[in-house]
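Late entry, evening session. Most of the bench is empty. Finally got around to the prediction I had been postponing all week. Sequence below, unchanged from the version circulated by S.P.
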Amino acid sequence: MRRLQADQGIPLTTPPAVDGLLLVDKAAGVSSHDVVSVARRVLGEQRIGHAGTLDPFATGLLVLLVGRATRLLQHLPHEPKRYVATVRFGTETDTEDLTGTATHEAALPDTAALETARTTLVGDIEQVPPAYSAKRVDGTRAYKLARKGEAPDLKPSLVHVDELLLDDFELEGDRVVRCRMRVACGGGTYVRSLARDLARAAGSAAHLEALRRTDSGPFSVRDAVTFEALKSGPPMLGTSLDALPGYPRQALAPDDVARVVRGIDVAAKVPGTHAALIMASAAGDTLVCLAERRISELGDRWQPRVVMRGDG
C-alpha cells in the first residue's frame, strides 16, 4: 500500500476519519472508481460513495459523500444532470464514443434535419442503452457481453430529457461534421445514446468525441477540486448539511436533539415532506438527522430517517 501511494504521489499520512461532501472534477481516462479509490486513500476513510458514474472518457462532476454522510446518498438532490458533449457525425461506434470501433458510416446531416431530430428527444422518451453499459441482461452486465462479441438484448428504458440544445456547428459545405450538444436530463439517461439517436433520426450516424458533466442537481463542477489536486492531499470537505441544499431546516432544542438521536419523533415547525434537523451554534449549523413528516395524534411530527448521531 505504501509503495502504491508513493507511486501515485499520494501522501503517506493517514488523516483522521472525516464526514461530508466532496465534489471532484474527474479527468479523462480515469474511472469513477479510480476517483473513489484515491479519495479513500487521501482521506483515510473507506466509506465513500458517489452519486452517478461517469464513463472513463468523460470529464466533470462527481459528487462524493464521505463517512457517515454516505447514509444520505439516496436522498441527495441530483437532478437534472447537465452535460456538454461534442458530437462527431458520419460514424457510429460500438461504444457510441471515440474509444470504440466504427460499426456504421452514413452521410453527414444538415442543420435542418438535426433540428427536427432534436425536438423528438426532449421530454419523456424511450431510450435503448448502449451495448457498452452497466445495464444487466439476465444478470450479466451488458458491457461484459459486448466485450465477448455478443450483442446484449437491451430493452428500451423510459428516461426524461429536460433540454437538448445544439450549437457551435462545424460545417463542410452545408453538412455538419460535428457540433456541441448541451443536455439537461434525469438519472439513467445515456448522453452517448442521445447522440446516436439524434444522428439516426437525422439520417446519419454519430458518436461522442467528448463528454463533460457540469452540474448534478444543485452541485456544480465550478465548486469541485480537480483530480490532480485530490491526489496531492486531503481536500477541505463540505459538511453533511451541505449535501442537502433545498431541504427545509429546523433547529432543535437540546432536549429534542437527545430524542432525535434515539429515533424519537419531534414536533414539525417548518413545512415540507422532509427536513434537515440541525443543531445551531455560533460555529455553524450541524446536521443531526434527515427526517420525514408524519401525522400523529400529537399533530405534525418529524420522524428521524437518517440519523447522523448529532455530530455529523
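Two things to note before I forget:
The chain has three domains: 2-76+219-240, 81-216, 247-307.
Confidence is low (pLDDT under 50) at residues 1-16.
Will write this up properly tomorrow.
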